[in-house]
Amino acid sequence: MFSVPAAQMPAALPRLSGPPGALPEVIAFYRSAVAACTPRGLHVAGAQLTARGSYTLDLSAGAHIVIGRDQSQQRLARFLAVWPQLAARHSEMFVYADLRYANGFAVRWPDAQVPAVTPPSTPSAGNT
What we know:
Layout (H helix, E strand, L loop, with lengths): L14 E3 L5 H15 L6 E6 L5 E5 L4 E5 L3 H18 L6 E3 L7 E3 L20
Parallel strand pairs: 1-2, 4-5
Antiparallel strand pairs: 2-3, 3-4, 5-6
Helix pairs in contact: 1-2
């Protein structure tokens, strides 16, 4: 186990982090996440385990998936089950997904440029 400054980190290596002594658990979770995400076009670049036991995945596209500490495998599987439908509706990759909800998840997409819409004019009292 070692730390490397981000500027010197080879791009091909996964970025794994966690509390002391948790390396085997982080590696196991990372491997299972890669196996689950890769067939769906999501490439996992790293995994973090916080001191409180919460997992986060970093994707190579820059997106982050916050999974939480309870039922992490099941929450990730629930998200991945609907990912193909979400991806089909959006041309861009999501920025952030929060899977910590008991019965669902939240996804933040990049800000989209919405064209300005001029509201319809209302007739004045003198025009009939």
